[in-house]
Amino acid sequence: MTFGHQGILERTHDLGLLGEKRLSERRWGWWLRAMKLRLHQFLSKTGHFSSKQAVKEAVWAGEVTVNGSVVKDIAFQFKVSKKEVAYKGQVLRLPSEDRTFLLNKPTGVICSRLNPQERSLGKRSVFELFRDHVTPSEYERLVTVGRLDEDTSGLLLVTTSGGMVHRIASPEMHVAKVYRVTTAAPVAEEQRSRLAGGLDIELEVNGEVELYRTRPAEVSMVDPCITSLTLSEGKKRQVRRMFAALGHEVVALERTAIGGLQLAAYELETGEFIDMSGVDVEGVVLQG
Ligand code: URA
User: For the domain 11-92, what is the CATH code?
Assistant: First the structure.
């Protein structure tokens, strides 16, 4: 199937007037994705073609698809955030476009690059899951938005956007994170109150162990051994330390939400992820 030229004249010619220098990379990328572009404009901006003529020839040769359908009209107009453009089967993106994935993290992978010691111990890095889904340059830039322990599963954002990490994971943002905590023994009423009101946990600060009083949290019971805990802070191994302070052994820990972003909404098996590039993930998180 071939799409016809839509013929709607949008103000795409303004593009050249704005210029990258007048917009930050993030706003520029957002702005491009949010607006309609003509196919030849989009293709030229990807950096895959040596000239405007090469763009036209690729399109006329039927080598370019939009959402899987060949489009031979160089003036075909589309909303960048809504369509996937491919050249000879390879999906093309705008250079300033960050990649973001929503992963249902499995246990057994760590949220950092491996150091030689970890490598020799046979540890696995969460980034390896994305190796075949991003370019080498994107792979180098991938970071996690906050961290989950090796033995924690659940919702994890992985992105090339350092700005996203800052805006979602900075302690001062106090973005709520929801954990499903399975304990070996039932959690008593008095213990729920202590989790909710704040309790002292041990934290290592500059090599010294210090006591830290946790901020108020939301607590509800799914079952006597399964607690839903909502925290607005994220000290290292905080959930496990809070339960350890109560004398509880955590047998499974899963993150189920970050702000308004709910893992259940994406129906992902453990270890599966979806590509959220171009989706306003921050908007969804910060709405919650
Ligand atoms: N709290 C923990 O103890 N571990 C995690 O992975 C996340 C929060």
Answer: 3.10.290.10
- What pLDDT was estimated at residue 28? 54
Cα–Cα distance between 77 and 39 in angstroms, integer? 6
Catalytic residue numbers, as ranges: 149
With a 6 A CB cut-off, is 177 part of the ligand 1 pocket?
no
pLDDT in tens, 115-132: 999 999 999 999 999 999
Helix (H, G, I), strand (E, B) or coil at 140: helix
Q: How far is CA 104 from its chain centroid?
A: 11
Q: Indicate the fold that domain 99-171+269-288 takes in CATH.
A: Alpha-Beta Plaits (3.30.70)
Q: Which atom, in ligand 1's list, is nearest to the CA of 152?
A: 6
Q: Is 238 in the pocket of ligand 1 (CB under 6 A)?
A: yes
In CATH, 176-258 is 3.30.1360.70: no
Distance 252 CA to ligand 1 centre (A): 10
Q: Where in the chain is the domain with CATH 3.10.290.10?
A: 11-92
With a 6 A CB cut-off, is 181 part of the ligand 1 pocket? no
In the chain, residues under CATH classification 3.30.70.1560 are 176-258
Nearest-angstrom CA–CA distance, 98 and 277 = 7
Q: Which of 150, 233, 237 to mutate to test ligand 1, by most ligand atoms within 8 A of the CB atom?
A: 237
In this structure, are strands 85-87 and 218-223 parallel, antiparallel, or unpaired?
A: unpaired
Q: Where are the alpha helices (DSSP H) in the chain?
A: 15-18, 25-34, 39-46, 52-60, 116-120, 136-141, 162-169, 189-197, 238-245, 281-287
- C-alpha 95/C-alpha 157 separation (Å) is 21
- For 166-209, the pLDDT digits (tens) are 999 999 999 999 999 999 999 999 999 999 999 999 998 889 99
Tell me what percent of the chain is helix, strand and coil, each rounded to the nearest 5: 35, 30, 40
Q: Given a cut of 70, is residue 222 above it in pLDDT?
A: yes
- Ligand 1 atom nearest the C-alpha of 148 is 6
